[in-house]
Amino acid sequence: MSENRKPLLGFVGKPPGGTALGNSGKTHCPLCMGLFKAPRLLPCLHTVCTTCLEQLEPFSVVDIRGGDSDTSSEGSIFQELKPPSLQPQIGILCPVCDAQVDLPMGGVKALTIDHLAMNDVMLESLRGEGQGLVCDLCSDRKVEKRCQTCKANLCHFCCQAHRRQKKTTYHTMVDLKDLKGYSRLGKPILCPAHPAEELRLFCELCDRPVCRDCVVGEHRGHPYDFTSNVIHKHGDSVRELLRGTQPHVEALEEALAQIRGTNTALQKRVEAVAADVRTFSEGYIKAIEEHRDKLLKQLEDIRVQKENSLQLQKAQLEQLLADMRTGVEFTEHLLTSGSDLEILITKGVVVERLTKLNKVEYSTHPGVNDKICFSPQQKAGRCHGYEVYGAINTKEVDPAKCVLQGEDLHRAREKQTASFTLLCKDSAGESMGRGGDSVQVAVVPKDKKDSPVRTLVQDNKDGSYYISYTPKEPGIYTVLVCIKEQHVQGSPFTVTVRKRHRPHPGVFHCCTFCSSGGQKTARCACGGTMPGGYLGCGHGHKGHPGRPHWSCCGKVTEKSECTWTGGQSAPRSLLRTVAL
To answer: Any idea where the RING-type domain is (predicted)?
Structure first.
């Protein structure tokens, strides 16, 4: 790796113009509140000191994933995967977000080291005149200089010894005060398996940084390349994942804004209803006072119930937003301030966390509404012998409880208006007693789904709705009745539309002789005749059905559809009868 190459992600040694970056990095532990000491990166992208994590109380969970854990770590980089088995897993809770952290086999010290946080701590210490920094060689004395070649902080004694050694005589030494304007002072990151070697290569097969000894040992034959050559591909994949996460932050912020707006509307609505209740109760000073108090308590219970629901949803969304922001802020900080190697080391944890966050489902709409109204004309029983009125209504129509009624539910005639009634009820099966619900009705021919029939919905203002439509052609129709975009009970259902009812052109008579006034040429569709040259039917004669019937088709049912198919050429004497 070339030390003088141009940084890929904006990693700079010293900002232009000599100005130092602000203290935007995370430098203090959320538990001990002090500067990080051996910071470890948790799967939820929160960073905590190693000693602080070791003080947390662990718990046991059952891990059925086998040797492969969701928690990536440097200590487990070179461990082989074990076959899946049912084994106990030790875990802790993140002290920031309470997320479960499954510890790897090596415990807390096997978690990923947050090198980015270590760099920020070093910069923070430099801005404080080097307080807290100790010599990297003797680990005892206060740091005075830094070897730019070895990337090591040295005390005065070790600095002199460094200059006396032949291999390090010509190394560049810089005073700490001259490093305050720098934004990166990272140390070389050494291989956990070969501590004498620096991680400069990346194994594509194992998807992890390796050293020179690794590629000739455990990773022999694996495709690898310098970290400077693969950072473009892996950095772009992390950026793409970040771009998919950022819109969720905006959506969550908008959802929380709606929650706050709904909560405000709920408060205003509650106050307005309470005012109505108090105004109405003034006319019944003695008897109504108790009733008024009951109404206000009921209203308060509704407010508490709805507000608790909103607060619960708000807390859930806020926690998810905090998790999203943590992921976005850490990833942005990693991509803008971390070195190539630091990105590659933490890439697995970041990708896993952002992927998990992107899969979380949430609703961007408030879980409750502000539908509360006061009905002053509604009877509320008797209070101290007085008839009292007024009730708080929070009823909402339940589509599954609504009922469809009417003779035309499953049959209709072409070009004739068919109708039925929708009775709206709440979840308890009680009538709504009011109108105003959004009722959607669609009547669609089976063979012409793109040509629905025009429907009319009439609100009766009592919880019932009169629905009518006029089909144009016979056939099978599908009727869909929905409230709040949900089907009511029995919907959808089919309606058989028959041809238009054919009225009888003849007369409903006892016989042709009587209805025609004794005309010999008058005929009847029953086929009966009389002697003496009469072409129609008569009582007791041949062919008479023995009961009243229609002269046009012979049907004996008065209220029936005519089945005569004689056409225009039929003898007019069949139809020309006289009702006496």
So the answer is: 29-98
